[in-house]
Amino acid sequence: MNALPGDRYEAFSAGTEPSQVNPYAIKSMSEIDIDISTNRSKHINEFEGMEFDYVITVCDNAKERCPVFPGRGKHIHKGFTDPSCAKGSDNQKLIAFRTIRDEIRDWIQNNFKSIK
The pTM is what? Predict the structure, then answer.
């Protein structure tokens, strides 16, 4: 979301079980000129006490385990297949990450109209 045109939104990312940024995520994002190689995996607890306009969960287990963020924020859930669960060759795993990358981009563009 941060890489798309428009400055109406600022996105933060966190997970319920952070570890490291997946190398396939880094590769698939670099293919569309987005460098996430220096990003780090964050736990949702890092954002406790912050107020958000939207809290968006994207995986089904996160929907069940995500805490309630106080304030006026609206909760939106959109399930996507977790590409880190993909099996097969390196190329098959990369294809899974590309697919979800594109699905997320399309969903953002269709649901947050100020972003083109």
Answer: 0.83
